[in-house]
Every structure is written in C-alpha cells, then in structure tokens.
C-alpha cells in the first residue's frame, strides 16, 4: 500500500530537534550542557590516562631495574650467593624467585610459594632482553601484582642460566586508581549539574531580548501600529530581526493607513451613484408614470451602472496589479505604432472638443502591449478632460541612454497646482473635480497608470504648471 497511517509517518527525531518541539532556551541549555560534558569527559579521561600511564611506566622501570640488578649479581658473582640472598631477603613491596634450568626453586622470598606459584608467571624472555610492563595478576586474597620472568646468565656461560621471577605488589596503586576514578566521576557529575544550571541561566539571560520583542509584538494592535523595537539597543545577532520587524510594522502601518483611506474613499465614491439610483427609483415609484418616463429612469440608471462598472473594473485591476505573483507578457513593440492606435481611438472626442492630438518620435521597447495602450489611453483621457477647446496634446516617444524609452503626454490644459502633485497618483484623488467637464471620473486613471509602470519595473513622473499645461513621462527601463 502507498498510504501510510499517521503513526507510521510520525516524526521520530528527538523532540528537541523537531520544529515546534522544545523552546530555544531548552535547546541552548541542552547544547551547552552537552558541550560542557564533552569537555569534562575529555579532561577527566586525559587525567585518568596520564595517571595510569605514569604508574605503569614507573612499574615497568622498577621491574626492569630489579631484573638488571639480579642479572648483574649472577654474572659478576656466580659463586657467591650472598648478594643474591641479600637482594631476595630485602624485598619489601616486591617478591623474587630464582630457579635453575629445570625450573627448580633455588631461592625465593619467604612465603612467595603460597601467594605467587611458579606456573602463574608468563613465559620468560631471553637473557639479553629487557622485560615489558609485565602481566597483571590478582591473588585470591585480593592483592594485585605485576609479574615478569626472564633468563639470566651465570658468569659468562651461555649454557648455565637461571630463571628469574619478579612480582611487584601494586595493590596500593590499584586502590589509588579506583579512588581517583571515583573522584573523577563525582567531579564529572557535579560538572554536569553545574553546567546544566548555568546553561539555563545563560540561555534565559541571552533570550531576554527575544522575550522583550515578543512583549512589544503583543502590544501591537490596529490602534498601536506606531510601536517600534529600536534595533540600536539589541545584540548584533538580533539587530537584523529587530530591523526587519520594524520594517514590517512600517509596511503594516502604511498598508493599514492606505486600506482605511481606500475604504473611506470607496464608500464616498459609491455613495453618490447609489444615492442617485435610489433617488431616481423613489421618484419613479412615487406615482404612476408614462412608459417614456420609466425609460428615461432606466437610461439614467444604466449610466450610473456603467460608472459603477468602470469603478469596479479599475479597482479589480489595481488589486491584481498589487499581487506579488502578478506577471505580465512582455513583447517588443513599436512605441509610435501604439501611440497612434490610442490616438485614433480618442480622435473623435478630440475633434468634438476642438483639440489637436499630435504623435511624435519613434522607439522600440519591451512591454505588455495591452497594458501600454491602457496607460496611454488613461493619460489621453485625462489630458482631454483638462485641455480647453483649441488646445493641443502631444504624445512623443524617444530612446534614452542607459534608461530605456520615455513616452511623454504633454497638454496645454489648465495644469495642476503644486500642492496636488505629490498625491496625484493616489486612488480616488482628484485635484479639482469642478474643473472637469466629465464628472464621471473616479480618480483611478493615474493610479492605474502608476500600477502599470510598477509592473513593468518603470517609473512615472508628472510636471505641471497652472494655466500652462501638464506633462506626464513614462520611463520604461531596458530589459536585462
């Protein structure tokens, strides 16, 4: 089967490694504790190894010295047993046994036969070799020994040899190692507990700025969008987060302000046509009327419906244009051809108003032809509204070095006062609706032009002087 149950697909990773598992404080504490425990383990392990190695080295040196002394006595004084007996009898922490070639005991430390029998010793080394560290052995009485055996020459004769067995009592060393190991374990356990406690304290202190950011975020509401974090007083690691958070708040505040203004403007713009429709309907229904009167009411209502339809169409276009996933279909178009097409469409209105439309220049640009025509059409419509009879509108295109292509729509109309220019591209903004002979406008035309230019990655600029005219410049950047 290709389907798995929820239990089968459950994340089997440790809880503290899974997203949404432990808190950051818990993770930092665990990681800090693990790293400290690792350092403690390395340090204690190294100390323990050094102690054991030093003790083994000392034992090896001691046994080698004793083998060397016994060999020297047998080699230099083969006929005198006094030196050998003195060495054997003077043994304290060690025991010595001397055997002949048939492994018969010639001399040994008193009582050695009961504690360290002959067979337990390892195989002997040659007379010219030095023993290694030896073999550890523990007696039935709980004593620990390190034992070695080696052949030694008697005099200068290779055929006459003696077997030496030496045992070093290392019980005290083992007791020392066991005690040292216990103390290391206690120190390691204490270090773990201390590192865990300090890790919690350090993690909580280190995460305090994040907690303060959270508290700031919790205070933010629609009425408190002015709250800011002030990244200057946060650690470097959180500066980027605090900056991004403040920038997000700036965008939210701007969006909320625009949305509030947009909602108010939309309500205001919708109120007029709706009131007109309601008034006409109420008047029409106030008494019986002739069919011609009802027809007039319907025609008037149809005009209001058309205005509402244009408004909704413009708002939908702006909403789609502001969607980050919105894309356009660019093509290489001839600006002069597109300008003439739009000019021909408005030619009838221009002639009726006694206004001349002139097309100038030529350039190729990369743009969506439908959106380009819509932007030019909106600009021409605005120019026609505010240009008096006998005026002139010039639409020109020209290539601009390092910038791409500029398209200008210049009129000899009434112009716009300087205080209105910064807001001229806002939705529903109209500098002076009383000046226009076409009151059906909603103030969305220039906002749509700006959105179209934003989609193309270009720019729109406006220059205007009252009573002298207005020039709108569209700049299309060169395609990368």
Write the layout of secondary structure elements.
Layout: H1 24-76, H2 82-89, E1 94-99, E2 105-108, H3 112-115, E3 135-138, E4 144-154, E5 157-169, H4 171-206, H5 208-219, H6 236-285, H7 291-321, E6 331-334, H8 335-352, E7 356-361, E8 364-367, H9 369-386, E9 392-400, E10 404-411, H10 445-455, E11 459-465, E12 469-476
Helix pairs in contact: 1-4, 6-7, 7-10, 8-9, 9-10
Count of extended strands: 12
Total domains, how many?
3
H and E string: HHEEHEEEHHHHEHEEHEEHEE
Spatially, the strands of the biggest sheet line up as 2-1-5-4-3
What is the level 1 CATH name of the largest domain? Alpha Beta
Biggest β-sheet description: 5 strands, antiparallel
- Share of helix among residues? 40-55%
Count of DSSP H/I helices:
10
> Can you tell me the overall shape?
rod-shaped
What structural class should be given to the helix and strand makeup? alpha+beta
How would you state the average pLDDT, rounded? 80
| Distance separating the two termini | 50 Å
Amount of beta strand: 15-25%
**What do we call the CATH topology of the largest domain?**
Beta-Lactamase
What CATH architecture of the largest domain do you see? 2-Layer Sandwich
Radius of gyration: 51 Å
Uncertain residue segments: 1-10, 433-439
Describe this structure in words.
This protein has 480 residues and is α+β, with helices and mostly antiparallel strands. The chain has 3 domains: 21-206, Beta-Lactamase (2-Layer Sandwich); 231-320, Helix Hairpins (Orthogonal Bundle), CATH 1.10.287; 328-476, Heat Shock Protein 90 (2-Layer Sandwich), CATH 3.30.565.10. It contains 10 helices and 12 strands. The chain has helices spanning 24-76, 82-89, 112-115, 171-206, 208-219, 236-285, 291-321, 335-352, 369-386, 445-455, and strands spanning 94-99, 105-108, 135-138, 144-154, 157-169, 331-334, 356-361, 364-367, 392-400, 404-411, 459-465, 469-476. A 5-stranded antiparallel sheet has the order 2-1-5-4-3, covered by helices on one side. A 5-stranded mixed sheet has the order 7-9-10-12-11, with helices on one face. It has a two-stranded antiparallel ribbon with strand order 6-8. Helix 1 (24-76) runs antiparallel to helix 4 (171-206), helix 7 packs parallel to helix 10 (445-455) and helix 8 (335-352) runs parallel beside helix 9 (369-386). The radius of gyration is 51 Å and the shape is rod-shaped. The model is unreliable at 1-10 and 433-439 (pLDDT under 50).
């Amino acid at each position: 089967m290709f389907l798995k149950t929820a239990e089968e697909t459950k994340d089997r990773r440790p809880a503290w490694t899974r997203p949404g598992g432990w808190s950051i404080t818990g993770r930092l504490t665990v990681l800090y504790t693990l790293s400290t425990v690792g350092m403690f383990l390395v340090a204690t392990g190294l100390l323990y190894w050094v102690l054991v190695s030093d003790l083994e080295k000392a034992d090896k040196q001691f046994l080698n010295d004793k083998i060397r002394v016994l060999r020297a006595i047998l080699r230099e004084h083969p006929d005198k047993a006094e030196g050998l007996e003195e060495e054997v009898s003077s043994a304290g922490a060690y025991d010595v046994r001397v055997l002949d070639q048939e492994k018969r005991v010639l001399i040994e430390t008193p009582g050695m036969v009961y504690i360290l029998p002959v067979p337990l010793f390892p195989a002997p080394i040659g007379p010219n070799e030095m023993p290694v560290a030896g073999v550890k052995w523990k007696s039935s009485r709980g004593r620990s020994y390190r034992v070695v055996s080696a052949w030694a020459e008697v005099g200068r004769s290779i055929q006459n040899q003696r077997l030496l067995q030496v045992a070093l009592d290392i019980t005290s060393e083992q007791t020392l190692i066991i005690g040292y190991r216990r103390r290391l374990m206690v120190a390691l356990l204490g270090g773990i507990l201390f590192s865990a406690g300090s890790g919690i304290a350090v993690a909580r202190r280190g995460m305090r700025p994040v907690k303060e950011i959270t508290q700031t975020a919790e205070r933010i509401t629609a009425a408190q969008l002015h709250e800011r974090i002030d990244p200057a007083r946060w650690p470097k690691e959180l500066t980027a987060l605090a900056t991004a958070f403040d920038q997000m708040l700036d965008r939210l505040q701007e969006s909320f302000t625009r949305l509030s203004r947009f909602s108010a403007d939309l309500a205001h713009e919708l109120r007029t046509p709706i009131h007109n429709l309601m008034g006409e309907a109420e008047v029409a229904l106030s008494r019986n009327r002739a069919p011609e009167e009802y027809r007039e009411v319907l025609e008037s209502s149809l005009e209001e419906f058309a205005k509402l339809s244009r408004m909704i169409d413009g708002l939908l276009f702006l909403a789609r244009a502001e969607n980050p996933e919105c894309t356009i279909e660019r093509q290489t178009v001839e600006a002069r051809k597109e300008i003439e097409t739009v000019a021909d469409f408005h030619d009838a209105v221009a002639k009726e108003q006694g206004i001349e439309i002139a097309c100038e220049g030529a350039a190729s640009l990369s743009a969506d032809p439908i959106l380009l025509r819509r932007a030019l059409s909106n600009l021409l419509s605005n120019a026609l509204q505010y240009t008096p009879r006998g005026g002139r509108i010039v639409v020109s295109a020209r290539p601009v070095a390092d910038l791409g292509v500029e398209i200008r729509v210049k009129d000899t109309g009434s112009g716009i006062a300087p205080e209105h220019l910064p807001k001229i591209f806002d939705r529903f903004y109209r500098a002076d609706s009383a000046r226009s002979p076409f009151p059906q406008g909603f103030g969305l035309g220039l906002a749509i032009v700006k959105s179209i230019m934003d989609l193309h990655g270009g720019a729109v600029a406006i220059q205007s002087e009252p009573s002298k005219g207005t020039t709108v410049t569209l700049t299309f950047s060169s395609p990368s």
